[in-house]
Amino acid sequence: MKFFRIMLTCVSVSLALGGCATFSQDGGFDGVKKTSAEHIKQEIVWSKTEAEQKAVADRVAELLKTPLNADSAVQLALLNNKDLQASFYQLGISEADVVQAGRLPNPKFSMLYARNDGDYKIEQALTFNIFSLVTMPKMLEIERSNFEKTKRSVALDVLNLAHETRLAYFNAVAANERLSYSEQVKESAEASAELANRMVKAGNWNALEQATEQSFYAEAIVEYANSKNQQTSAHEALSRLLALPLDQLVLEKRLPDLPQTIDELHAYEKTAFEQRLDLQAMRLETQALAKQLGLTKTTRFINVLEIGPARVLEGRRGDPYKKGVDISFELPLFDWGSAKVAKAEATYMQAVNRTAQLAINAQSEIREAYSRYQTNYEVAKHYRDEIVPLRKKVLQENQLRYNGMLISPFELFANARAQVASVNSYIATLNEFWLAETALQMSLIGSASKEGK
Amino acid sequence: MNDFLSRRNFFKLAGAGIAASTVSKVAMAALPEIVSAESANTQTPLHPDTGRPYNPVVTLNGWSLPWRMNNGVKEFHLVAEPVVREIAPGMKAHLWGYNGQSPGPTIEVVEGDKVRIFVTNRLPEVTSVHWHGQPVPNGMDGVSGLTQPAIAPGKTFVYEFEAKRAGSFMYHPHADEMTQMAMGLMGSWVTHPKNPKFMPVDRDFIFLLNAYDIDPGSYTPKINTMLDFNLWTWNSRAFPGIDPLVVRKNDRVRIRVGNLTMTNHPIHLHGHEFQVTGTDGGWVPPTARWPEVTTDIGVGQMRAIEFVANNPGDWAFHCHKSHHTMNAMGHQVPTLLGVQQGDLVDKISNLVPDYMAMGETGMAEMSDMAAMMPMPLPENTLPMMTGKGQFGDVNMGGMFSTLKVREGLAKGDYKDPGHYQFPKGTLAYEFVGDAPEPPRQSATDEKAAVEVQVRKPTGHAGH
């Protein structure tokens, strides 16, 4: 039948042009895995089946057996974070778009039926949008490009989560350390306040001296309360990223030590442009938009070109149907497509400029991140090698002076508090260094998230 | 104290040092050789081998400067220079002194002696020497700018005068004296009477009172301190670094004390009454003397006290300002008397690991604790109170020494005779049994007598 022969021709032409798009085995996940593996050593799992979910739960339980370090915390987040699983499904959505783009539009059947006092007019047409045969290969290419972009952006989600988890982890450990120090300060301030009370009771001190000493204790309480609150916030932030309740989290006692040395800036600048996933994604998007622009240009006059067999009956019901072909297409009488082209052009140029700016930002972000990293390294090192030992030395020397009854015990306590403050500052700067290090690594992959900045 | 009264130990620096570089060899040959001391111990008295005879003094933790006779003139050579003085075992001070020590050597001459003193300046700044209390020609009085040009570093000046009046004197700079005296630049001077039989004594001691402010852990005095010194010294020595004054029972003893600090010192002797027999102004007529056990020595004054040491024993001899018999202490340390601390130590040692509770029962426990456990002090620092006697801690420092009166010592024997052996029945003893209740003023006031009632201000009504 001629009608079906035409349809068949259409389909075969379309297959020849675009190739048939089908769903892949991994749904694009292998690509994401490969990309993220280039940057972090942790594994990612898209747990869709119950068996996979069970395996993940086992792995999570395994990881929770020992106190978490930064790496195991990241691994936990990658396994357990639900937002990340949601991101993985974005792959499915995007791949479905690819497959969709590779499929022919459904044929359309139209019918006109009119009757007047025994006279009939019946028109039947089975039409098919043959213009989509022209656009399909381009659409498919665009969607494939989009799919690639999605893979990059899902990989970026993975790395972003790893990044945020590292930040949250360091914050939580630092908060623990600070809390334990401020607890010590509070306790001994309490003891010295009590000593001050006893001084007054014994008649050795006046209210002014007592109040002065009491005020240290009063401030120590506030400091402790703030540290406690900060510790809770820091832990909750980590808990959210790991999607695990606080009581299951046991962290290592101390932040990792400062590394012996740090790398030079150019080591980071060199690799940056090959690695930045956001740049890669943006380039892919720009490419897709370029194709989109090309497509829009070729299709500017025609939106729909439909063709298909038609048969017409006119006159009496028993008359034979006239057979023919129904062709319809949109007349570009009012819309010559120039607006569409302008929009596509503008969209494309927007993307081009955004990509350029992103590249400029990327360079700057890396330099900024490096500066923060390097400065915090120097500052933390200075605290570790200079300020803390000096404070310690001052305390030791004052201990000797206290032994010789050369200074008051309260002076000694004040000194001890200053020593603790210097240790706290060191922890803060060490924390800053690890945050900066994490941010620097992230700046090589994509624009760092706001958290932890 | 083993080397107490070690043999006079000089090392001679003839023609050496800075003086050689600034004074020609010929000129140096004309100078008496420079004699220097390296020990801070009391040296045996210097008996005169030339010149007029006299009974020499014993300089407490010091020595007397040898001289040479030159055509009937006694020539001495003083060198002002930086020195390291041991304040007491365990502490050394970077001071300025003369001929290796601070204070410098005692200069002993005889009434009527013609004296020529060469003064070489090896200090980094100008100096001069004022012969405190002596009648000298105005141009020999040593006030730089006023009566002479200052002696520049490296230069040697000559002072010539006649020791007109017998008595006890001092010498010290009168150029930037605030710095130079705070740094310990000073010495004693004795002009013995022409007649050795005039007011003779068996033992004649001399020393200067001086004070330093040396921060614990440092070596150089803070020269800007005016009154709040932390080291109160006799001849730049603090207890237990001050040698005892050893005398034979029934010896007539003279002690000459000069005060170059910035406050007065009531010097108190136990077990004996003395009379002030001399000042730097001259001898006190016997009719004007009165008995004392303490004499207050004002700033810039010199006192000679005399007594017969008729009471054997180890008698304390000290400044009566109680802080002056202490070494470095924190004047801002609050009183911790009666404040229980033991139960707080654990909490406190979270932050201050080596913290120990102190002062609850008084300061003496410091000596106990120092003895019980190693309680390190800052380097180059003396404990605030220290010293051991035969019955335990003496808990002293600063201007404290002992007068040791013993029977049967040889003339001229100043060796420490050790602890006093108390004759039976002469030592305070512990009462065993129930102590009788001490009588109180009134039964109704009993509570008030035991407890201190502190009335707290309740308002401004009484104002």
Automatic annotation (TrEMBL), chain B:
Annotated signal peptide: 1-29
Residue runs in coiled coils: none
Pfam families per the UniProt record, alphabetical: Cu-oxidase_2 (PF07731), Cu-oxidase_3 (PF07732)
Region annotation Disordered: where it falls in the sequence: 434-463
Keyword field: Copper, Metal-binding, Oxidoreductase, Signal
Record-annotated Plastocyanin-like domain positions: 87-195, 219-334
GO terms assigned for molecular function: copper ion binding; oxidoreductase activity
Source species, domain of life: Bacteria
Record bears the keyword Repressor: no
PANTHER family in the record: FI03373P-RELATED, MULTI-COPPER OXIDASE
Protein name (Swiss-Prot/TrEMBL): Multicopper oxidase type 3
Originating organism: Methylotenera versatilis (strain 301)
Lineage of producing organism: Bacteria, Pseudomonadati, Pseudomonadota, Betaproteobacteria, Nitrosomonadales
